[in-house]
Amino acid sequence: MFLLGRRNFLRGVTAIGATAGLGAIKPLWAQTLDNRAVLDVIKKPIPSTGEMIPAVGLGSWITFNVGNDPVLRDQCANVMQAFFDGGGRMIDSSPMYGSSQDVIGYGLDKLGARDRVFSTDKVWTSDDGAEQIAETSDYWNIEKFDLLQVHNLVGINDNLPLLFDMKDAGRLRYVGVTTSHGRRTDDLIAVMKNTPLDFVQVTYNPVDRKVEDYLLPLASERGIAVIVNRPFQGGHLIDRLEGEKLPDFAAEIEVRSWAQLILKYLISHPAVTCPIPATTQPMHAMENMQAATGPMPDDDMRQRIAAVIGVL
Amino acid sequence: MSEWWSYSLADFLLFSPRVYYRLFEMLNTTWWLAVTAALVAGIITFGLSIRHGNRGNRVALVLLAMIWGWVTAGFLWYYYQPINWIIPYFIPAFITEALLMVMFAARRMPLRFGWRGDFSSIAGVVMIVMAIFVYPFVGLIEGRDLIQAELFGSAADPTAIGTLGFILLARGSWRWGLLPVPLVWCVLSSGTLWVMDQNIALLPLIAVWLTVLGGWMDQKNGVTRRSLLDTGGDD
Hints:
A: globular; B: globular
């Protein structure tokens, strides 16, 4: 019987750490990582190349927009450290996310982790996309991104050809297009049908399931990798589930929190490549990576997960 | 960009309350001397603005201009702008507000402040008292630390609210030239706080409402149109 919510899970681990008297040596999330074997994280293929990437990534929307605050910048670096140590690679950002790109660059500098990151960003402008991408490169201090996406299809007629040109010139590895909140789904579907995209990014979680009907099957059919944004509805879903008892069947897939249950729901969809939950807590980053380990729900259990979360 | 219609207000809020209130903590701890000086300048301006007579009007305007300059450079430019993409668009407006105050101070007959005992005077004093003495402590009720207090003279919201109060305490039509920037700021800030689920979002809106009502009553009572020489002053 699992009674743990996300915060209770964190409190519990904190208490264990305090009891062990380890607090003065390392941050708790680091101690917890030290005490575990390296996570055997599930990897999923990028259909266009077959390259395998860990099935959970890290988003930066709101959580990494901390400006010049040195304390919060270090906290973000700690989140990245926990994410990398847990086996994660894909970090996603956008020029729309304030100082997030700069903070990611700071974290990569601090951790010396540029060889570990699967760098994922976006172009979000109707003006000069090349100029914006150059700024983004400066923030990350990365010359060649793994993946650049047209953010919410903004300026797609100019920006998508620009990204394909960069890919052809060897200055970019993958090209994608994003939407969120179910916006402009018809336009996205048209782009998926007519261009050789490597990635799409869509909103998907056990409550927002519209993409299951057509978009995810289309992605499978067209060989397009799928990144899932807003897996927790920007945190609202987790807040809503806080304090609710996990269903008994969660034990069968070794889930200890609602966050992990949601992530397993997403990862187990055959068309989904990588959800990108955002967090400010290193412990949550690690907990998210743990969701990409162990047994996954089958179709029947996925339906039960959606049903349980849908009524809470 | 034709796609703006597909965004909601919340989509443009890209920072959390945690990060937002840390801005004031950093401002208050790093620049504590300037923050204290700006607050004291605000209190002095309040004292000068409720007196009758011409003396002190220029000083009040210069102090307010310096406060707006400090809010622009210290808070908006260095701390707030990195996390909020809309701030760079507001910085010229804040600078313009400061320059207008300097201009009004430099006129042969400067903008004049004074207690008139009418509705807009009362509303003005209420807003100034709220901005200087109440606003910083509202956060305590919501569980925030005192070190994160938003102080008049350094934080934009109480400064804008207090400035609206000073404008209501002033006379003549010229004062309305100072109105747009703090008024628009209060509306924007209220929207931001509302999206962040902060109860304090009501205060800037109340200030806007009081200002509009006070301005309308001044217009109705002729305070705006009345010649300064007819008001018993010593210009």
